[in-house]
Design brief:
The complex is a heterodimer of chains A (558) and B (295).
Chain A (H helix, E strand, L loop, with lengths): L5 E12 L2 E13 L4 E5 L6 H9 L6 E10 L2 E2 L5 H7 L4 E4 L3 H4 L6 H11 L8 H11 L5 H4 L9 H13 L5 E5 L7 H18 L2 E6 L2 H7 L2 E6 L2 E7 H6 L4 H9 L29 E12 L8 E12 L3 E5 L6 H8 L7 E6 L2 E2 L17 E4 L13 H11 L5 H14 L16 H13 L5 E5 L7 H18 L2 E6 L2 H7 L2 E6 L2 E7 H6 L4 H9 L19
Parallel strand pairs in A: 3-8, 3-9, 6-7, 7-8, 13-18, 13-19, 16-17, 17-18
Antiparallel strand pairs in A: 1-2, 1-4, 4-5, 9-10, 11-12, 11-14, 14-15, 19-20
Helix pairs in contact in A: 4-5, 7-8, 8-19, 13-14, 13-15, 14-15
Chain B lengths: L10 H18 L1 H23 L31 H37 L1 H16 L2 H12 L3 H27 L3 H8 L4 H12 L1 H24 L11 H12 L5 H28 L6
Helix pairs in contact in B: 1-2, 2-3, 2-11, 3-4, 3-6, 3-9, 3-11, 4-6, 5-6, 6-8, 6-9, 7-8, 9-10, 9-11, 10-11
The chains are: A alpha/beta (558), B mainly alpha (295).
Amino acid sequence: MRKPLLDIQDLTVEFATRHGTVTAVQRVDLQLHKGETLGIVGESGSGKSVTSYALLRILDRAGRIASGSIVFGGVDIGGATERTMGEMRGRELSMIFQNPRAALNPIRAVGRQIEDVMIQHGLATRGNARAKAIQTLEAVKIRDAEQRYHAYPFELSGGMCQRIVIAIALACRPQLLVADEPTTGLDVTTQKAVMDLIVELAAERQMATLLITHDLGLAASYCDRIVVMEKGKIVESATTEQLFARPRHPYTQRLMRATPRLDAQVSDLLPLDDSRRVIPSQRPAGPPLLEVEQLVKTFGKRDSADAVRAVDSLSFTVHEGESLGLVGESGCGKSTTSAMVMRLLDPTSGSLRFAGTDLATIPAKAFARHPLRSQLQMVFQDPTDSLNPRWSARRSIADPLMRLGKLSRQDRYRRVEELAERVGLPGELLDRFPHQLSGGQKARVGIARAIALNPRLLILDEPTAALDVSVQAVVLNLLVKLREELNMSYLFISHDLNVVRLLCDRVMVMQAGQIVEEGPTARLLSEPAHPYTRSLLEAIPHPPAMPATLPPPLKESA
Amino acid sequence: MTTLTADGASPLAGVRRFLRHLLYVMTDNPMTAFAFMLFLLIVGAALVGPWLVPYDPLATNAGSTLQPPSWQHWFGTDQLGRDVFSRVVVATRLDLMIAVSAVAIAFVIGSTLGAIAGFYGGWAERITGRCMDTIMAFPLFVLAMGIVAAAGNTVENIIYATAIINLPFYARMARTEVAVRRNAGFVQAARLSGNADWRILAFQIFPNSLPPMMVQISLNMGWAILNAAGLSFIGLGVIPPTPEWGIMVAEGANYIISGHWWLALFPGLALMLAVFTFNLLGDGLRDLVDPQRRT
């Protein structure tokens, strides 16, 4: 067998923290050959990023490689001097980071940033660097490369920024590219374009790629081999076909199950013996609850040339007990729409009739104390950002009850406990602060707060986007259960059609402030009429279908 | 700290949690523990100093003028035979009082103005911003001198002058800290919960902006002490024979040439120790009020 390009043996990485040493990566073995694409899949805290940081020797100061060896192209990375590493990084080993905007220098033109890395590694001189940088920009398929050379990162979209980052990473033709969640935070169509580009460039240059992701579907579409990590250990390693045909480790099986796929029901995301499984029942839609008519929001001066119509003559209806999905990519106006419906933002024109009252006539400022305030609530996208860091979970959940609920102190206390139980938050966690809770627990606190006042309409703004898939599976089941128990209507906002399908009766697809297609979920996703809907559907990476029968799981020690 | 006690939890539990956290912050960083000890020493001197000192700080004694430090007079005596040690200890109260009042006024007014400017933006922000710029445009110490000279030589005027020159720091800091949180998720959530704007600002955004301001308060305390002493040194503000570190250094400076170094040295050291303590204390205070550190 030929010698691997990258050979990681028995790698253990430890972090020194206040509470003693924490082992982030434990006895990891990895081999990567030239031209191969290896996916490392795992949820947050699985050690997948730390492995790649160790490989580039960019662990932060508290972290150290405790044991094991990393050999890359014959060079022992663990024992290399900082100077050797400086030469290797960018030239032999490159990395693409999760947030492209944070990875670029905001005050330097992007072309200059590409030049910097080439000059640093002696692959270009001041004289020819410009031409080479433009060539590189063309290689990552940036149109008008000559003009874009002078652009600053803030002038470019997220997808464009990620292309620039790729251009910088590949400028020196490295042999190994490490991509750490390269498309998280990008739209699905952009994600597809970026991933296709990475794979195409890698094939063209015979480059090895290490793709780190939490998305099994993405890994399945682009990787030759997949390694599954859990809690710092590799639990399973196989070729992509093998892994999906015969997932052997229980964790892999759980992960595969939790990844939403085309044929799944919301209950399929959880194992059969999980008590949190919910099988949704078909319910007839009631009378209209919210009627939105000709809703318009214009930013900038009215009637001026640079005014932007973020939401353009939007009309839709949410019925009582119905769950309506609103799907679109970033910048399509879906967040603006939800802010207007929630009465956090005043519309430019149009009407919002909620249970017979036109809310658009009540200014957003005055709505805070309006009797209808309690009927309209929202679950936010980022569970961390939406909780006051100085308040315990109990205080956060109690806040709407204190302001709008007319309960005595004891009743309020009981109500908070009851809400926590309803959303599956253990009572002893109620006195913790947000930074002491996990992502899923914070999401539950946010949901408990939103349903505290028994709202009739709940807006869910990508409530699971920041969560791991296995947590997402639990939260989605919880949301289905709550809707049935409390008879709420949902307006579910998401960019992920797979998730929308699980939760919604009807879906609207939004593009550039307008609704381009609307219909019952099943029909819209199986026979999309509008080309934009089709392109959205095609861009979603699908994990291969679940094998009908899973092989008996190995013992946990495997 | 009331916002930290959970709804329904007994106040005693809150106090106990705070004390446990205090102990943790102390043991985590010995420098902080050292600074807190010095701080307690200074506060103690300010509170009970006048009853502990061996001599009346104002009593002159023509028989023992300009005595070097000895067992009778630890820090020696001055040109009128007053005990320097007693005067240094007694002066702590006045200097600390000036600094605490000045910083408190500056913090309350400055951070309120800044928080309003940061939260509402628009005209509120423009007017506050320009006013603060105007104050900052002056050399600050000269401005303080001008205020005291114009308003009259009293302790209150030193306090007001010191407060005014400290205002812009709090206003600017509060404005930035509030502005970055203006559209945070928890603020939106608070609106949905039916909180009025002022309530969100006062109970949700403002407490979250406190940690960096605590550092500023502590650094400013040192600076305010120095400022008050500086004003007295040049003859503005506190009037002799009141014991005050600035005046004592000023008076003692005349005697350094003739070899009576202790007159200026000991009040100077006290001043240095106070400033040093407050600067060290800053980091510890931040740890104390930062919820991320409460584990």
